[in-house]
Amino acid sequence: MRTVMVVFWVFIISLIDIKTLRIPDMILLCFFLSLLFLDRSRDVSFFCGRLASVAVCFGVFYSLYYFTGGMGYGDVKYAAVLGYALGLDKSLWAFTVASLGGIAVYLAGIKFSRWNASVKIPFAPFLGIGSLAALQINFNLLDSL
């Protein structure tokens, strides 16, 4: 059920970001609350782990937002919600896939479409694709370090 919910919200958020270059707070709140409802019977240790994941994901993306200005604050909040949805290990996979995909599209756009450095690209679809890919990965990155 969790995977279906993540797929649904990722699809909605990606479409909105592609169309408007914005991720509405109300949509993120609905995504987060639906996850909390799904997890209502989990134990405290689950929530502590997910809270740590939210903090790490928010911190990393906020740093990128603050120091580079290369993404919007909606992407920061979306990354935090995905951190809760996926957990820390799968979030690292998702963000790696998203970053590589975003870089590839940006470089292709510069080379073939004559984009300049100021072009705005919606990042939510890349985060969504990375999240869907991470849901399929069974390798625990953190245990291998």
Concise overview:
It is built from five helices and no strands. It has about 140 residues and is mainly alpha-helical.
Kindly describe this structure:
There is one protein chain. This protein is mostly helical and 145 residues long. It has one domain (2-35, 44-144). Helices cover 77% and strands 0% of the residues. It is built from five helices and no strands. It has helices at residues 2-20, 25-38, 44-68, 73-112, 124-136. Helix 1 (2-20) runs antiparallel to helix 2, helix 1 (2-20) packs antiparallel against helix 5 (124-136) and helix 4 (73-112) packs across helix 5. The longest helix is centred in the middle third of the chain and has 40 residues, at 73-112. The chain is globular and about 50 Å long. InterPro entries: Prepilin_IV_endopep_pep, Prepilin_peptidase/N-MTase. Residues 6-105 form the Prepilin type IV endopeptidase peptidase domain. The chain crosses the membrane at residues 6-37, 44-67, 92-109, 121-139.
